[in-house]
Amino acid sequence: MQVTVIPGKIEGVVVTPPSKSITHRAIVLATLAKGESVLTNILYADDTEATMDACRGFGASIKQEELKLVVQGTGGTLCIPSRPLECGLSGTTLRFALALAALAPGETIITGGVRLLERPLQPLYDALQTLGAEVTQEPKRITVRGGALQGGKVRLPGNVSSQFVSALLMIAPFLPQGMTIAVEEPIYSRPYIDLTIALLKELGVAVEQKGNQFTVEPGQSYRARRYAIEGDYSSAQYWFAAAAVTRGEVKVLGLAPESVQGDRKVLDILRSVGCEVKYERNAVVVRGAKSVKPFSVDGCDVPDLVPTLAVLAAVAPGMSVITHIGHLRGKESDRLAAPAEELAKMGIRAEVNGDSLKIHGGKLKGAVIDPHGDHRMAMAFAVAGLAADGETVIQDAEVVSKSYPGFWEALGMLIGKHA
Q: Is 1 exposed, middle or buried (0-12, 13-18, 19+ CB in 10 A)?
């Protein structure tokens, strides 16, 4: 499937999808809780569907009812999946499933797309093996032999994936000795760890923090409850950026003003480049500036913003720099090389320099864009197409279903000139 984006100004109101990050975590924690949880405002997308299927494999009963899930949890007593768990292209699902498999008594087989199994996993394997699991990876599958975890202290690098920490924190209450995780600096994507800790607290599990060390005492349990998923800043970023690059205005509904989601940082960045940002009740309004200013941003905590920030930089006269993003080479695409390659097609010079991306802003021209199998690349370059001279074609446009299945329809509604 390909989509043609025609230049035009963004104007209007849109409801952001539910948070993908919170949906993943809520499903896993409801699976580990004892009793019935009701999760409302659920995101149904490829990645979250993969997490639902994985949790069903471990013994949770999950019933879908429109925008809610009714989850009958296991109380932490997991069963061994009767068939291999297929994680698709979801890195979050894979890393969380690895931790659950280590908790389950027996052998779990996990599979996924080629790119998924190439993503960084060894530090999580090492931690799970320290705790008492056995993990082996073959070219097309991972085998975990679990059920003998005792707990204790593990160390993790902080500059590979925050999901390693989140995965371990979620199973920690069920280990006889609890768990202490020491995370080595630098810590990238720290807001995602904070998001996990906040959700654990909401569901009754305390995490003690001392610097870069996180401790979960044994004997705690998750409360089954009704929980509403808040709107997703990671999805809303495209509409905010579209307003910025087209000098338009957009109101995005469904966002929590005090959210701990790290991608809320996009609003601070947009203010810094000259946009007007206004919070309203359960909504955020962004009005584009007459001219976007070049900027320098540390991207270590906001990996999902980087393709969009690269597009924002492309329309800012002068040089912009996104630093500390070397770990993004292991995402759905290489999020340093891929934006630079596609911006070059649109007439913009971008350079990868170590762990940084430098963009020399100018005037975008329409082009045929390869999203490199990355949903966030596809959506970010749709935004670029709005500000380009001529039509922009996004190939493999269906990849947006990974996180935002309704993206193209929402774009059509806001622009009114989308084919």
A: exposed
What pLDDT, on a 0 to 100 scale, did the predictor assign at position 66? Answer: 78
Q: How many C-beta atoms lie closer than 10 Å to residue 210's C-beta?
A: 9
| Amino acid present at 252 | V
Cα-Cα-Cα-Cα torsion 200, 204, 210, 214, nearest 10 degrees, comes to: -50
**CATH assignment of 20-213, given 3.40.50.2300, 3.65.10.10, 3.20.20.70, 3.50.50.60?**
3.65.10.10
Beta strand extents in 318-384 (DSSP E only): 318-323, 349-353, 356-361, 368-369
Same fold, 3-17+231-415 and 20-213: yes
**Per-residue pLDDT at 259:** 93
Q: For residue 262, which of 174, 334, 372, 166 has the smallest C-alpha distance? A: 166
| Confidence at residue 255, expressed as pLDDT on a 0 to 100 scale | 95
CATH level 2 (architecture), domain 3-17+231-415 = Alpha-beta prism (3.65)
Successive 10-residue mean pLDDT values, the chain, 419 residues:
94 96 98 97 96 98 90 97 95 97 97 88 96 94 96 95 97 97 94 97 96 96 96 97 96 94 96 96 92 95 95 97 88 88 97 94 97 95 97 97 96 71
pLDDT at 419: 37
The pLDDT of residue 158: 94
Give the closest residue to 73 by CA, choosing from 105, 38, 112: 38
Give the residue numbers marked as catalytic: 304
Burial class of residue 220 in the structure, from the number of CB atoms within 10 Å of its CB (0-12 exposed, 13-18 middle, 19+ buried)? middle
What residue type is assigned to position 181 of the chain?
Answer: I
Extract the tokens encoding 198.
């906040």
> Is the torsion defined by CA of 216, 221, 222, 225 positive or negative?
negative
Look-up: residue for tokens 């993790």? 156
Our measurement of the distance from residue 327's CA atom to the centroid of its chain's CA atoms, rounded to an integer in Å, reads 14
Count of other CB atoms within 10 angstroms of residue 272: 12
Burial 158-193 (b: 16+ CB within 10 A, else e): bbbbbbbbbbbbbbbbbbeebbbbebeeebbbbbbb
Q: Identify the burial level of 133 via C-beta atoms within 10 angstroms of its C-beta, where 0-12 means exposed, 13-18 middle and 19 or more buried.
A: buried
3-state secondary structure of 276: strand
